[in-house]
Amino acid sequence: MTDIRIPDTIRPVDGRFGSGPSKVRPEGVESLAAVSRTFLGTSHRQPTVKNQVARLRRGLAEFFSMPEGYEVILANGGTSAFWEVATFGLIRRQAQFAEFGEFGAKFAKAVKDAPFLAEPTVHRAPGGQAAFLQAEAGVDVYASVQNETSTGVAVPVRRVAGADQGALLLTDATSGGGSLEVDLRETDVYYLAPQKALGSDGGLWMALMSPAAIERAFEIKASGRYIPQFLDLVTAVEQSRLEQTYNTPALSTVFLAAEQLDWMNTQGGLAWAVRRSTESAAVIYGWAEKSAYATPFVTDPLLRSAAVATIDFEGVDAATIAKVLRANDIVDTEPYRKLGRNQLRVALYPTVEPSDVAALTACIDYVAERL
Question: In this protein, which residues make up the domain named Aminotransferase class V (predicted)?
Fold first, then answer.
C-alpha cells in the first residue's frame, strides 16, 4: 500500500505535522546558519549566547503579555524535568491534579512518588474528555494541563475558586502555549517547551512565573528540603536573571525559539497565533465532521484543541494511511502510541499553514479511497 503515490497537485507545501518535535520554519534555520560561525560552539556564559537567552525571555514576555512582577525562568531538561523541579521546589505538602491524558498523569505520578509530600488528590477523566480542579482545604498547589497532547483535549486556564489563600496554580502549556488563549493573571506558573508551538528543538523548559510562585520557591529552598542541584528552581531563577542557564543549553534550541517568537510577535503576537491555529482547527474538524469514515475523537466541540487534533477512523486503517502519507513525505500524523486508537493526530501550531492542513485532508481522502 505504501506504493500509492499522491499527486503533487494536492500535496501540502510542507508535510510536517508532528505534535513535537514540530515543524521548524526554514527561515529560522537559515537565520541560524547565518550566525553559526559566531554562535554555535561558543560559551553560554558570554554575551553572544546570553544575548540570545535575553531575546528569548523578552520574546516570551511580549508574546504572552506578561503581567508586572512575573518573570520568565528557563533551564535545561524539558517538561519532564520541570515536573520534578516543581515537585521539589513548589509544593509545600499537598497538590491536586486534573488528569485527562498521559502528560497530566506523569506529573501526578512524580508527586505521588515523592516521599516528602502528602498523597495528592487526582481528578481523572477518560481520554477524549476533561477533568477539572476543585477547591480543597490544605492543597497548596493545583496543577492542570491546558492542552493534552496525547488526546487533543484543551481546557481554559482559570484559577480555582475557593482555593486556600496562597495556593498556587501550575498550568502545563507544553503543547498549548502559543496556540491557545491565556491570561497569565489566571495562573502562577505557565510552563511550556520549545519543540511545540515555538517551532524549535527540545531540551529546555520555560516558565512564566508569578511573584507568589517565585517567593514559594525561595521559601521551600530556605526550609532545608533536599533539592538536587539540577532540579533546583531557585538556581534556575537566579541563572535566568543573568540571562543564562545553570548547565550548558542547546544553543540551536535557544536561537530557534527566539527567532520563532520574534516572527510571531511581528505577525501580531498571541492573538494572531490563536487565530491561525483556530483556522487550521476549523479546517480539519470541519472535514472530519463531513467525512463518511472520519470523526473528531473529542466529541465535545468546546474541548477540541486548536493545537493538536485527533481524528478517529472507521472502516479504514489509520496506521496504513499514516504509512502511505509518510512514504509521500507527509510525516508524523501517527496517533499517540499509548492511546491505542484507530486515529491520526495532527499538529495545528502557528508554524503550520492552514492551507497545508486543507491539503492534508485531501491527501487522506485520496489514500482512503485507494485502500
Answer: 140-330
SS3 of the chain: the string is CCCCCCCCCCCCCCCECCCCCCCCCHHHHHHHHHHHHHHCCCCCCCHHHHHHHHHHHHHHHHHCCCCCCCEEEEEECHHHHHHHHHHHHCCCCCEEEEECCHHHHHHHHHHHHCCCCCCCEEEECCCCCCCCCCCCCCCCEEEEECEECCCCEECCCCCCCCCCCCCEEEEECCCCECCECCCHHHCCEEEECCCCCCCCCCCEEEEEECHHHHHHHHHHHHCCCCCCHHHCHHHHHHHHCCCCCCCCCCHHHHHHHHHHHHHHHHHCHHHHHHHHHHHHHHHHHHHHHHCCCEEECCCCHHHECCCEEEEEECCCCHHHHHHHHHHCCCECCCCCCCCCCCEEEEECCCCCCHHHHHHHHHHHHHHHHHC
Sign of CA dihedral 115, 118, 119, 125: negative
* Beta carbons within 10 angstroms of residue 316's beta carbon: 16
Q: Is 5 exposed, middle or buried (0-12, 13-18, 19+ CB in 10 A)?
A: exposed
Distance CA 345, CA 167 (A): 35
Query: pLDDT tens per residue, the chain (371 residues)?
Result: 669 999 999 999 999 999 999 999 999 999 999 999 999 999 999 999 999 999 999 999 999 999 999 999 999 999 999 999 999 999 999 999 999 998 889 999 999 999 999 999 999 999 999 999 999 999 999 999 999 999 999 999 999 999 999 999 999 999 999 999 999 999 999 999 999 999 999 999 999 999 999 999 999 999 999 999 999 999 999 999 999 999 999 999 999 999 999 999 999 999 999 999 999 999 999 999 999 999 999 999 999 999 999 999 999 999 999 999 999 999 999 999 888 899 999 999 999 999 999 999 999 999 999 99
